[in-house]
Write a structure and sequence with these properties.
Helix-turn-helix transcriptional regulator; Cro/C1-type_HTH; globular; Lambda_DNA-bd_dom_sf; single chain; 2 strands; 74 residues; mainly alpha; two-stranded antiparallel ribbon
């Protein structure tokens, strides 16, 4: 079974009307790392990073992450 976690950072940024550059400034995280997370190219994410993103987007981890179970039922 392949694990597929979908990142919804782009959706939350749009809901908050915030650009990635602004989130980078607020969190102190690099725009490049946030871009990797946003595009789903990051292999993982630290809880501390997730906390900072959630704190500044005023959301919960579940708002940013979604599991895709489609392959489990095919």
């Amino acid at each position: 079974m392949d694990t597929e976690v979908i990142i919804r950072l782009d959706v939350m940024l749009a809901k908050r009307k915030m650009r990635l550059k602004k989130l980078a400034e607020l969190t102190g995280l690099s725009e490049q790392n946030l871009s990797l997370i946003k595009t789903g190219k990051a292999k993982g994410i630290r809880f501390s990073t997730l906390f900072l993103i959630c704190k500044h987007l005023n959301c919960q981890p579940g708002d940013l992450l979604e599991c895709n179970f489609e392959d489990d039922y095919s």
